[in-house]
Design a protein that fits this description.
The complex is a heterotetramer of chains A (519), B (319), C (328) and D (328).
Chain A: E1 12-21, E2 24-34, E3 39-44, H1 50-57, E4 65-70, H2 80-85, E5 88-91, H3 103-110, H4 114-123, H5 140-153, E6 158-162, H6 170-185, E7 189-193, H7 197-203, E8 206-211, E9 214-220, H8 226-234, E10 261-268, E11 272-279, E12 284-289, H9 295-302, E13 310-315, E14 318-320, H10 325-330, E15 333-336, H11 340-343, H12 350-355, H13 370-384, H14 399-412, E16 417-421, H15 429-444, E17 448-453, H16 456-462, E18 465-470, E19 473-479, H17 485-492, H18 515-518
Parallel strand pairs in A: 3-7, 3-8, 5-6, 6-7, 12-17, 12-18, 15-16, 16-17
Antiparallel strand pairs in A: 1-2, 1-4, 8-9, 10-11, 10-13, 13-14, 18-19
Helix pairs in contact in A: 4-5, 13-14
Chain B: E1 4-10, H1 16-32, E2 35-42, H2 47-59, E3 64-67, H3 76-84, E4 88-92, E5 102-106, H4 108-122, E6 127-133, H5 139-154, E7 158-165, H6 170-183, E8 189-192, H7 197-205, E9 213-216, H8 219-227, E10 233-236, H9 242-254, E11 263-266, E12 270-272, H10 276-285, H11 308-313
Parallel strand pairs in B: 1-2, 1-3, 3-4, 4-5, 5-11, 6-7, 6-8, 8-9, 9-10
Antiparallel strand pairs in B: 10-12
Chain D: H1 13-23, H2 26-43, H3 50-75, H4 83-97, H5 103-126, H6 132-153, H7 163-170, E1 172-173, E2 176-177, H8 179-196, H9 198-208, H10 210-215, H11 220-246, H12 258-267, H13 279-298, H14 303-325
Antiparallel strand pairs in D: 1-2
Helix pairs in contact in D: 2-13, 3-8, 3-9, 3-11, 3-12, 3-13, 4-5, 4-6, 4-11, 5-6, 5-11, 7-11, 8-9, 9-11, 12-13, 13-14
The chains are: A alpha/beta (519), B alpha/beta (319), C mainly alpha (328), D mainly alpha (328).
Bound molecules: adenosine-5'-triphosphate (2 copies) and magnesium ion (2 copies).
């Protein structure tokens, strides 16, 4: 059973990998073969087992079955440290810097050379990193980039990136893609997990597709292949409906025409400066911004998590002051954070997580009406198609399914306004469609949605209107018809409207070639 | 008002006997009229902690220190420093190894010997005894063990059915005796290290055969000796008022009346209810108004001068 | 600067508090001098080692309930070995018990790693085991300590180049404490092992994924804790001249001082300096309470209130000082 | 798809049994309890009789209620070390106030400090974010201090155990301890509360991820304050039950129950880090500890050996339990 060492013999070759968690089979029969110098996409719907495979390949968990060859040899990779020695370096889906150590200590801990690291960090678009900053205080997106730079600095033979770009704003994501492609050019291999077809087409040579824990195909990436990949990924679950954004002026604004949410001159330290906008009933308003332009603070202020230092917020025409998220919830405003770790009680069941807001107020501390709750919760689960095979504990759900739970909660609670902060981060194409549809449906029911996204595509897909934020200010607001990528990008960089995006790796992807556009 | 400041160091808190000791010290200081201020270090700690307290008392420049030692040898260095600083040192309740210190102590070995001997006689010199000790590793407990073993040696037909450590805790002792009674092992007598009334309670509650019980002169137990039907038993005195005696001794020394001996031992007495004269004695000492954990011997003739009201008020000079 | 305050502000604040309490002491008892400071240093000794032992494991994300029992066991072992033995024999006893502490501490760690039972239960079980062992070694307080050992904490250390008056404020006990702690702590802090200890306390999963040998690091942390606990046990034997099988009040005191010292009970944060200063503050407050001749029952109330108040204050300034938008 | 080769093999009986137990963690715990009782019976044939069972229940009940306090607080990532002091205070105040007061008044007076301490704990932990260990340790010190001051004011009036507490503490009805009249409702209430009420849900949620709870509209301080008041109230009631059982009011009455109450909760499968556990396991945990204490009492061996054995058995029981229920 020896593989013939041909010139193009695989650098990494895994076959028949299986992993069970109790009754849940995370992987049943996965295989993956990566050639030297290739950027290899690993694709699959949420819960297909991608992350599990990465963890197995890098020794973070032990497989129940399967054979893994590295450079044709069967190495015993039992710990991440051993994987490192074998030249395999992962960036996991969750940040793995030690939160209480500063960046420098994190480097020392892993024996990462500092200068190459710094060089990579600069290359990845962060010119002014303070290396003595405690990891806990570094924003999530930067943390992801640091994770990557740390891996790059030791020049691994195989780099495994698990949804590296999911939490990144467009500008950083673009840098990452550039760097990753150059890895391939330099003869090193990369395993790249992403749910974004644009990235896959721009970057990858081949793709391995997983479905329900088994490899269902390996394809070369070429124009038009996306259709086939989606088919393989989803099996019978193919959705071909295009969610169209509402045409301008279609559907009347519900009620008396008063805006649902009206923000005036909102001020928050140095982060938000004079932000004003309205959110109407029955509207999905997109917020688009590069990393760190104040969008986090805006959402937090609207959600009652932090108190603005100035300005006013009106709900249904009445001024409100939120001192706690429960005030916002009382006013019918629910917040779905981008980081699911922030939103979920990981050791509790899906049901309890969804039903959590029902018990929040002291007057609801009494006995729970279980049957009523069951109905409401399963309604929400069905609506988001959450895969609940491992529903006893949310932490056992795949990343994407966890994300869905955070939204399902507010569907169940029937919130009138939902603030979604990058809700499709790390969600597979099929589900994304579901979520788009869901948001539109909510709007159709007269609810309103404020929707921050790091993907331009989505703006065009679901929003009625886009609010672009730059440097803590609203720099532009335009209807969705005008929101092409160039316009969005320019606005996001604080440039005047009507110029073209002609820089960056994504500019090379011809518009309309992505699977999402076709599906 | 008096002229002296007296420091007190004690390392067990929340125990009835020790609380009575502290109150006796306060009452005696007040009754003597010679003490301006008491400086009391009273907490749960070990020998090293007591050394700290003693040194703090030296820093506070007290005239005398009355100490109930956590360990006879362990605080030698501190007591030596105190003597060097011109402070009179009196140890109460237990002896100390520091030669310059004066000692007025209950004789713990004798305490155990007296009670055990009486018990074994009651048992007719043979049978099984339940031996309920104090806290494992405490020096008072090992002194009492010596006395108990001495008596045991004199009665070769008496056997220890079971030896347990109560840790001087009421709840632990009660659980132990109940567990033991449940085994159905026959016994002929029970010796306790002063955790006594819960034992009698247990015998009554479980309707177990009444066997002779030896305890200390705690108010609760003394009361039981004259009220519980069928109970034969003896209380061996172990006065907490020894603290008051310690203050008296310290004041005498400060006033220049040194005692003839460095060590004064207060010998325990045994009050039993097996004889009529014993019963009469018990009647005269029984005191239901006291908390059951407090020893009834709230004073020591010749050594303490306060009244019962004074010790119960538990107020020192200046309070 | 703001980062310094964020990282070291608590320790600096504690130090200021210590100075303040010291001034108060001087006001209460103007005669409070270098000799009294020496007493303080000696009183601090066992607490400081107990706290150091606790700090290491708390930083590693655990807790060690067996600290005081370990001190008792090593104290009786040392005292009974030195009983009736020659002065020189103690030269062997000290390294022997130190090694014993390392081994027993490592045993704690191994049991935690192998049984996968939570730290708090394993060390609670070990508390009973070690207490039992101490009782088997010595059924009642006893034993002895070598004279040279006893002398090692009495008096002051002549430090060359220091004027006599200053020398008087450098008690041997303090020197011993500083030397023992630094010998272990400073090299550790600078090593990758030290970082690993912080790492497993901060985020065990991330540490494992960063290639830290989690099990081995945890065992080492407990072994070091054992080592410090032995130093504490030895200091008990040295100061009292005996070994006592019943553990003193060092367990809860160590946990309290760890928290007062700014070490988070979840792990990963803090250092050794804070908890040690906290011990000094607590002991000095004890001195003040004695000097003031405060009703002993009230002192319990005061000590509890101080503990709560300091931590409350600390929590309060952290809440206030949290940068805007840090947790959106 | 030819993935038959990697399909999981037909599940063996042992594996099925293990999975069965993992889904019902109470069963292995009860089996462990039965094993301990069997050992006891072998060592002392005839000991396991009706009377012994009643006695065991009597002692396990107060422990189990206090362990209930620990379970609830541990679910939120906290701990309540003040339960011992609170129980002691209630008991002591009840026994001394009943002498001159109406029973109802005495009862209210006895419950007052419990509510107060619980409230202070709750505010400290919930609003000021003091670590629960420090907060409850602090209030327990303060409470002890007040109790000692109080104690001196009532020395003269003496103490008395009211008859109804006596009945509750030691009485039997058809061979069943009357304490069950108190315990069964309390236990049912706690279990119901944890599983089927909004408040119970919040305890788990807050302990698991406080930020998530906050974003769902939960006000942390409300939950925590209610929790600690409830915990203190239960502790106070336990104190009354316990004084009826022990019948000797002392200033340290219930202190010895504190560490075992934590141990019972942990043995019963509650995580000290929060978010995981339940009360039924805790009850069995309390029974296991009580039986273990009996077992060791009747063993003829030196005290040191007994403690060593106790430690190892606790460790073994917990490790075995974890092995059985973890399904990996
Ligand atoms: N610790 C665990 N316990 C139980 N089940 C688990 C555990 N970890 C993962 N699973 C299950 O294994 C399956 C695969 O999960 P995995 O995280 O590999 O998916 P993924 O392909 O990375 O999905 P996503 O795109 O959503 O991140 C899921 O069904 C998940 O519920
Ligand atoms: N315990 C529960 N179980 C199931 N669904 C619930 C529960 N509590 C609330 N809901 C659902 O959540 C939605 C909003 O509930 P919310 O508590 O915000 O309403 P409310 O007006 O405050 O409630 P109420 O009318 O009881 O005062 C409702 O549609 C309701 O069906
Ligand atoms: Mg994943
Ligand atoms: Mg995902």
């Amino acid at each position: 059973m020896t593989t013939n060492p041909l010139p193009q013999s695989p650098l990494l070759d895994a076959t028949g990998v299986a992993k069970n968690y109790g009754a849940v089979a995370a992987l049943r029969n996965a295989s993956l073969s990566v050639l030297p110098g290739e950027v290899h996409a690993l694709m699959g719907a949420n819960g297909a087992g991608k992350s599990t495979l990465v963890k197995i390949l890098t020794g973070a968990i032990k497989a129940d079955a399967g054979r893994i060859l590295i450079r044709g040899q069967q190495l015993d990779v039992r710990t991440p440290a051993a994987a490192r020695r074998a030249g395999l370096l992962p960036v996991y889906q969750e940040p793995s810097l030690i939160p209480d150590l500063d960046v420098l200590s994190n480097l020392r801990l892993t024996g990462t050379p500092v200068e190459p690291f710094r060089a990579w960090v600069r290359e990845l678009g962060i010119p002014d990193l303070d290396i003595r900053e405690t990891a806990r205080h570094v924003p999530l997106a930067i943390l992801r980039v640091l994770d990557l730079a740390r891996a790059l600095a030791v020049e691994p033979d195989v780099l495994l990136l698990d949804e590296m770009t999911a939490a990144l704003p467009a500008n950083l994501a673009e840098k990452v893609l550039e760097v990753v492609r150059r890895q391939g050019d330099a003869g090193r291999s990369v395993i790249f997990i992403s749910h974004r077809f644009v990235e896959i087409s721009a970057l990858c040579d081949r793709a391995t597709v997983l479905r329900d824990g088994a490899t269902v195909g390996v394809v070369d990436i070429e124009p038009g292949i996306e259709e086939r990949i989606v088919e393989m990924m989803l099996g019978t679950r193919i959705e071909k409906t295009r969610v169209a954004a509402r045409a301008a002026n279609e559907g009347a604004v519900a009620g008396d025409g008063r805006p649902r949410l009206s923000v005036r001159n909102l001020q928050l330290g140095t982060k938000l400066n004079d932000v004003s906008f309205d959110l109407a009933n029955g509207e999905v308003a997109g917020v688009f911004a590069l990393e760190g332009q104040g969008q986090d603070e805006l959402f937090a202020a609207l959600a009652g998590s932090i108190r603005p230092t100035g300005g006013s917020i009106d709900v249904d025409g009445a001024p409100v002051k939120f001192s706690h998220p429960s005030d916002a919830i009382q006013a019918g405003i629910a917040y779905v954070p981008g980081d699911r770790a922030e939103a979920l009680a990981m050791q509790r069941s899906v049901r309890e997580n969804i039903a959590l807001p029902f018990s929040a107020a002291p007057r609801k501390w009494g006995p729970i009406r279980m049957r009523r709750e069951q109905v409401v919760v399963s309604g929400a689960i069905g609506r988001l198609q959450i895969d609940t095979r491992a529903q006893g504990e949310v932490q056992r759900l795949s990343g994407g399914n966890q994300q869905k739970v955070t939204i399902a909660r507010w569907i169940a609670a029937n919130a009138r306004t939902i603030l979604c902060f990058d809700p499709t981060r790390g969600i597979d194409v099929g589900t994304k469609q579901e979520i788009y549809k869901l948001l539109r449906e909510l709007a159709g029911q007269g609810k309103s949605v404020l929707f921050y996204t790091s993907e331009m595509e989505e703006v065009q897909r679901v929003c009625d209107r886009v609010i672009v934020i730059f440097g803590g200010r609203v720099v532009d607001t335009f209807p969705v018809e005008d929101a092409d990528e160039a316009a969005l990008m320019r606005a996001a960089y604080g440039l005047p409207r009507g110029a073209r995006a002609d820089v960056g790796i994504l500019a090379e992807v011809k518009p309309g070639s992505s699977a999402e556009a076709a599906s | 008002a008096g002229k002296y400041t007296i420091g007190i160091s004690n390392t067990v808190q929340g125990n009835g006997w020790r609380e009575e000791m502290i109150c006796a010290m306060k009452a005696q200081a007040l009754a003597s009229g010679e003490v301006a201020k008491l400086n009391i270090a009273h907490r749960n700690t070990d020998a090293a902690g007591q050394l700290e307290d003693i040194r703090n008392l030296i820093s506070a420049k007290v005239d005398a220190i009355v100490v109930n030692p956590a360990d006879p040898a362990g605080i030698k260095a501190g007591l030596e420093e105190a003597t060097k600083a011109g402070i009179v040192v009196v140890a109460v309740d237990q002896a100390v190894t520091e030669p310059s210190a004066y000692i007025i102590s209950n004789n713990q070995e004798q305490y155990a010997y007296l009670g055990a001997k009486w018990l074994f006689q009651q048992m007719g010199g043979k049978g099984e005894v339940l031996y309920m000790r104090g806290a494992a590793g405490a020096s008072a407990d090992s002194d009492r063990d010596k006395g108990f073993k001495k008596a045991l040696a004199e009665f070769p037909d008496v056997k220890v059915a079971q030896e347990v450590f109560t840790g001087w805790q009421q709840d632990q002792a009660k659980q132990q005796i109940l567990s033991f009674l449940a085994t159905g092992t026959p016994i002929n007598g029970i010796w306790t290290s002063g955790i006594d009334n819960v034992i009698v309670d247990a015998l009554v509650e479980q309707q177990a055969p009444m066997v002779p019980v030896v305890g200390a002169d705690n108010a609760g137990f003394v009361g039981q000796l004259s009220s519980v039907k069928g109970l034969v038993g003896a209380a061996v005195t172990n006065p907490g008022s020894i603290g008051g005696a310690g203050v008296t001794l310290a004041l005498q020394i400060l006033d220049g009346k040194k005692p003839a001996q460095q060590t004064v031992l207060v010998e325990p007495q045994l009050w039993e209810n097996a004889t009529d004269e014993g019963k009469a004695k018990l009647k005269s000492v029984v005191d239901p108004s006291l908390s059951p954990e407090w020893p009834v011997s709230i004073s020591i003739p010749d050594w303490t001068t306060y009244t019962k009201d004074q010790i119960i008020a538990c107020k020192g000079p200046g309070e | 600067m703001s980062r310094f305050l964020r990282n070291q502000g608590w320790v600096a604040g504690l130090f200021a508090l210590l100075i303040f309490v010291f001034v108060v002491t001087k006001l209460i008892q103007p005669g409070y001098g270098s000799g009294d400071f020496g007493s303080l240093a000696r009183a601090v000794l066992p607490y400081a080692f107990a706290v150091a032992a606790q700090t290491v494991v708390v930083i590693a994300g655990g807790i060690d309930l067996s600290v005081a029992a370990m001190m008792a066991l090593t104290s009786v072992t040392a005292a009974s070995m030195m009983n009736g033995a020659s002065e020189e024999y103690a030269l062997f006893v000290v390294p022997f018990v130190l090694a014993m502490g390392l081994v027993l501490g490592a045993l704690n760690g191994v049991l935690i790693v192998v049984t996968r039972v939570p730290d708090i239960v394993v060390t609670l079980a070990m508390l009973f085991v070690l207490q039992g062992a101490a009782l088997l070694v010595l059924g009642a307080p006893g034993g002895a300590a070598a004279e040279w050992l006893k002398a090692s904490v009495i008096g002051t250390a002549p430090i060359p180049g220091l004027p006599d008056w200053a020398d008087a404020w450098v008690p041997k006990a303090l020197v011993l404490l500083v030397v023992c702690l630094c010998i272990v702590w400073i090299p550790l802090r600078r090593s990758r092992l030290g970082l690993s200890i912080y790492a497993i306390g901060s985020d065990e999963l991330a540490a494992f994924r960063s290639g830290v040998p989690v099990a081995r690091t945890r065992i080492v942390a407990y072994a070091l804790s054992g080592l410090f606990a032995v130093m504490g046990g030895l200091s008990l034997t040295i100061s009292t001249g005996i070994g006592a099988p019943i553990p003193g009040p060092y367990l809860l005191a160590s946990v309290a001082a760890v928290v007062l010292g700014g070490v988070a009970l979840g792990g990963g944060k803090g250092g050794l300096l804070g908890p040690i200063i906290a011990v000094f503050v607590l002991r000095l407050v004890r001195t003040d309470l004695t000097l003031l001749a405060i009703d002993p029952n009230v002192t319990a109330i005061i000590e509890g209130a101080i503990m709560v108040a300091v931590v409350m204050f600390g929590a309060f300034i952290t809440i206030r000082g949290r940068p805007v938008g840090a947790t959106p | 798809m030819t993935d038959i080769a990697t399909m999981p093999q037909p599940v063996s009986f042992g594996r099925r049994l293990k999975r069965f137990m993992a889904d019902r963690p109470l069963i292995p715990l009860i089996i462990l309890l039965i094993i301990l009782v069997a050992i006891l019976q072998v060592l002392r044939p005839g000991i396991v009789n009706e009377r012994w069972i009643a006695n065991t229940a009597k002692f396990a009940i107060p422990l189990a209620i206090l362990a209930g306090c620990q379970t609830m607080t541990m679910l939120t990532g906290g701990i309540d070390l003040s339960v011992g002091t609170v129980a002691t205070m209630s008991a002591f105040i009840m026994a001394t106030q009943i002498v001159n007061q109406d029973p109802a008044v005495a009862f209210l007076l006895a419950m007052l400090p419990a509510v107060l301490i619980g409230f202070v704990n709750g505010i400290g932990v919930g609003v000021f974010r003091v670590h629960p260990l420090i907060m409850t340790l602090g209030t327990s010190l303060i409470g002890t201090g007040f109790l000692q001051v109080y104690q001196r004011t009532v020395i003269a009036s003496g103490a008395k155990i009211p008859d109804f507490l006596n009945w509750l503490g030691i009485g039997l009805t058809y061979g069943f301890p009357n304490a069950l009249f108190l315990f069964v409702p309390v236990a049912v209430l706690i279990v119901f509360m944890l599983n089927r009420t909004g408040f119970g849900r919040l305890l788990y949620a807050v302990g698991d991820n406080e930020r998530a709870a906050r974003l769902s509209g939960v006000r942390y301080w409300q939950v925590i304050t209610a929790l600690y008041v409830l915990s203190s109230l239960l502790a106070g009631i336990t104190g009354l039950l316990y004084i009826g059982l022990i019948k000797a009011p002392s200033l340290s009455l219930a202190e010895p129950l504190v560490l075992p109450s934590v141990a019972a909760a942990v043995i019963g499968g509650t995580s000290i880090f929060g978010g995981r556990g339940g009360y039924t396991g805790t009850i069995v945990g309390a029974l296991i500890l009580t039986v273990l204490t009996t077992l060791l009492t009747i063993l003829q061996m030196p005290e040191g050996g007994r403690r060593i054995l106790f430690g190892f058995i606790v460790l073994f029981v917990t490790a075995a339990y974890l092995r059985i229920i973890e399904d990996r």
